[in-house]
């Protein structure tokens, strides 16, 4: 299936971060599908916002495993019915980011800043209320913050692969490993480099160890030659990324902790996690305990199976689209 995404951006003369620092000439990029439709009151009546994960961009939703399930004719988010907006988060994709020039001098931003930027983008596009706000991984955490920060904006919330609590434990440690690898790269030079540092990328295969399922890893890495091949491929992929962008992206979760405000959420919310996701361990019952604070909330734990792939199950919409379809019917 070929899905035609339109690309655009808005510009902000200035953008004040929650630290009080100000970014000038901010660009917020996005993709869209479908066309806006106005309701009887003249306001947009069919808007959907979907957010991507850390270090990614709205291009994530062009993957066949997502787009075919979500955006095909008759799909759960059929563009013939919905106006779908896919923002590039602040610091990511085509939006303003450190590699545009400031590099290590780019101010530290947080999830609250990213959500504020998404909100300004939505309002600039004429969206006053959305049928759905949802996202994957980091985008799921943004979804929780949307529910607590703008409780009247979305009718429905759909976070995929997240906990609505401050990041801690294994999920925090692997992020810190990446942060330290960048800061201690000999080429980093306090972020004032002229040639892109490379040593930091050698730690990035840790992501596959933590985020992919054991059956997938065993299939892809049956011997030492395969291990070397996979290692090299992950390193090459990350060498194409700017470490200043990656540093700020992995630091940005520092202000994330919606737990105390979950009672403010008014939308219907369905949160989906995966039983075999070791980054979000089901046995800790974090999601199940937290969801009790959401008046119209429900937690779904997708059982582990031969086809699930731990944290990366999130990019296979077939695992969670039935729950989204049910939510959209309410």
Map the helices and strands.
Blueprint: E1 6-16, E2 22-33, E3 47-51, H1 64-70, E4 83-87, H2 111-124, E5 132-136, H3 138-149, E6 156-160, H4 169-183, H5 206-211, H6 214-220, H7 224-239, H8 243-251, E7 268-274, H9 286-290, E8 297-302, H10 321-328
Parallel strand pairs: 3-4, 3-5, 5-6, 6-7, 7-8
Antiparallel strand pairs: 1-2, 2-4
Helix pairs in contact: 2-3, 4-8
Alpha-carbon distance between the two ends:
28 Å
Radius of gyration: 19 Å
CATH architecture of the largest domain: 3-Layer(aba) Sandwich
What top-tier CATH class of the largest domain fits best?
A: Alpha Beta
Helix/strand order: EEEHEHEHEHHHHHEHEH
At the third CATH level, what is the topology name of the largest domain?
A: Rossmann fold
Query: How many individual domains?
Result: 2
The total count of helices amounts to 10
**Given the helix and strand composition, which structural class is it?**
alpha/beta
Describe this structure in words.
The protein folds into two domains: 6-167 and 254-328, Alpha/Beta hydrolase fold, catalytic domain (Rossmann fold); 169-251, Rna Polymerase Sigma Factor, Chain: A (Orthogonal Bundle). It is an alpha/beta fold and 330 residues long. It has an eight-stranded mixed beta sheet with strand order 1-2-4-3-5-6-7-8, with helices on both faces. The relative contact order is 0.14. It has helices spanning 64-70, 111-124, 138-149, 169-183, 206-211, 214-220, 224-239, 243-251, 286-290, 321-328; strands at residues 6-16, 22-33, 47-51, 83-87, 132-136, 156-160, 268-274, 297-302. α3 (138-149) links the parallel β5 (132-136) and β6. It starts with 5 loop residues before the first strand and ends with a helix. Pfam families: Abhydrolase_1. Residues 46-202 form the AB hydrolase-1 domain. One of its GO terms (molecular function) is hydrolase activity.
């Amino acid at each position: 299936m070929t899905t035609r995404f339109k690309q655009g951006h808005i510009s902000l003369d200035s953008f004040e971060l929650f630290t009080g620092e100000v970014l000038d000439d901010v660009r917020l990029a996005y993709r869209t599908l479908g066309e806006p439709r106005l309701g009887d009151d003249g306001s947009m009546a069919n808007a959907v916002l979907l957010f991507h994960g850390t270090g990614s961009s709205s291009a994530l939703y062009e993957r066949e495993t997502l787009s075919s399930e979500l955006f095909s004719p008759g799909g759960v988010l059929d563009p013939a019915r919905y106006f779908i907006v896919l923002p590039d988060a602040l610091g990511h994709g085509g939006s303003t980011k450190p590699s545009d020039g400031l590099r290590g001098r780019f101010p530290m931003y947080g999830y609250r800043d990213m959500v504020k930027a998404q909100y300004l983008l939505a309002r600039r596009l004429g969206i006053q209320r959305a049928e759905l706000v949802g996202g994957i991984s980091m985008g799921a955490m943004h979804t929780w913050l949307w529910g607590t920060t703008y409780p009247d904006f979305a009718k429905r919330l759909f976070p995929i692969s997240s906990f609505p609590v401050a990041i801690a434990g294994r999920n925090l440690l692997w992020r810190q490993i990446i942060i330290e690898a960048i800061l201690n790269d000999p080429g980093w030079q306090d972020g004032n480099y002229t040639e892109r540092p490379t040593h930091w990328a050698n730690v990035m295969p840790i992501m596959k160890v933590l985020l992919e399922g054991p059956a997938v890893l065993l299939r892809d890495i049956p011997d030492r030659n395969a291990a070397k091949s996979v290692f090299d491929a992950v390193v090459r992929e990350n060498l194409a990324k700017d470490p200043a962008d990656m540093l700020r992206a992995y630091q940005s979760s520092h202000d994330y902790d919606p737990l105390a405000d979950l009672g403010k959420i008014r939308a219907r919310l369905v949160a989906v996690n995966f039983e075999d996701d070791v980054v979000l361990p089901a046995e800790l019952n974090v999601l199940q305990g937290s969801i009790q604070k959401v008046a119209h909330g429900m937690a779904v734990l997708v059982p582990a199976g031969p086809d699930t792939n731990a944290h990366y199950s999130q990019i296979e919409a077939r695992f969670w689209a039935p729950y989204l379809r049910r939510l959209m019917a309410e």
